[in-house]
Amino acid sequence: MRNLKYTMLTIPQSKTFGLLFLFTFLFMQNVSGQDYDIDKNWHNLKTQFKLRNDIIKDLVTLLSKSSGEKKQLDELQMVSVDFFNYVDTLKQRDSLTVSIAKVKNEILEKAIEDAFLKLEDNKRVMNKTSVLDLITQLESSENKITVAKAKYNEACNHEKRTDLLFGRPDKVPVVRF
User: Fold this and answer.
1) What confidence tier does 31 reach under pLDDT thresholds 50, 70, 90?
2) Distance of CA 4 to the CA centre of its chain
């Protein structure tokens, strides 16, 4: 009988155990919730990158038919696809993989700017309604990417994961069309 007394929890002990279990459960929920915010914002950022990639593909297809800048446009599409494929296939985000994604994104932003600087003098191509519509969509996409990056960086800062920041917070990309 005496051994049974030591193996059973008394009422105060069971309350302590219950509180400890509840505290552990809530702590684990909070930790997983932190990662969830970063993951959710990363997914949103990837979605915006995908939309930009699709718009660039449509623009390149349309402009390749009517402009003499096929080589520049093909390079733009190649850089866009390379960037999105890299971001889309990331299995794990760490400071190295996010840094590589940042650099690839900067290369893409430069390729977009270079392509449109060459095309802006071609009024015949740039004044087509279909081209203007896609350019407007691309501008909108860049704005949405800027907002998504800010939200992602905000989630990283909130969770003190500055190693995962995507771009400098003070740097706003300028894409001119």
Assistant:
1) very low
2) 58
